[in-house]
Amino acid sequence: MKATEVPEAKETVEDGIMAIEGDGLVLKGKEGGKKEELHRVQIYTGVKKSDNHTELTGTHYFEGLDRKALVRRVTCFIQNHYDLTNLTVISNCDGGAGYQFSDFDGMVEGCKVHHHVRDLYHVNKKIRTRLNFCPREFVNTMVRELYGVIQDVRPWIDTAMSFAKTEKDIEEVRKLEAYIERNKAYIPTLKQRGIKTNIHLGTAETNHRYL
Fold first, then answer.
1. Rg (the chain; Cα; Å)
2. Whole-angstrom Cα distance, residue 48 to residue 150?
3. How far apart are CA 87 and CA 113, in angstroms?
4. pLDDT tens digits for 109-120?
5. What is the pLDDT of residues 60-94, one digit of tens each?
6. DSSP the chain
7. 146, 92, 98, 97: which is closest to 118 by C-alpha?
C-alpha cells in the first residue's frame, strides 16, 4: 500500500502502543569507493514469540536515499493509516543527524503521547568509548547503574575525572557529561517510565543485515 493511499478503515493497534525506529546505513559503491547513505524507518506494534525466536508484528518498512523525502513519506503514511488520538508512540534511535526527537515528533503529530528513547546500545557504547582510560570495573558499574541516577550524574563524572591523566582524558569526560545532559530525558528505559509493553526497541540495526 502506498504512503499516500488512504485506507477505508484506519489500522488498529491492539494495546494502543506503536514503535517507530530510524537509522542510516552507509553503502559503499564498487566504483571508486563512492559512499551513499540509505535511510530507514520501521514501524511495528508488537512482538510475537515463537519457539526460540521473536517476530515483530504490525510492521511497515521504509527506505530511501533522500532522508527528507523519506520522512515526508513516513509522515504521510502514519497520518493516513492510524488513528493517532489514542495511540502512544515510542520512538528509538541513536541520535544521529536527522534522527532526533523533533524528527519523530513531526511524523506522529496528534498522537496521545510520544516517548522518545535514546538507543540503549549506543548510550552504553558512548560511555565505554569516552571512558576507555578508566578502570573497567568502574565503567561497567556506571553502565549498569546509570539509569537509576540519570538526574544526578555528577558523582560519576567527578570519579571519572579523577582517573584522567591527560588533557585528552579530561576532554573525553567533559564530552560524555555534555552528551548525558543533552539526552537525559531520553535515556530512562520504558520500565522506568512506567510503560508496560512486550515491544523490544533497537531492532532497526538488526534488520540492516537483510538490506
1. 19
2. 32
3. 7
4. 999 999 999 988
5. 999 999 999 999 999 999 999 999 998 999 999 88
6. --TTPPPSSPBP-TTSEEEEEEEEEEEE-SSTT-EEEEEEEEEE-EEEEETTEEEEES-EEEEES-HHHHHHHHHHHHHHHB-GGG-EEEEEE---TT-SHHHHHHHTTT-SEEEEEE-HHHHHHHHHHHTTTS-HHHHHHHHHHGGGSTT--HHHHHHHHHH--SHHHHHHHHHHHHHHHHHTTT-S-TTTTT---------TTGGGGG-
7. 92
C-alpha cell of 122? 549506543
Which residue carries 573497567 as its cell? 136
Distance CA 16, CA 18 (A): 7
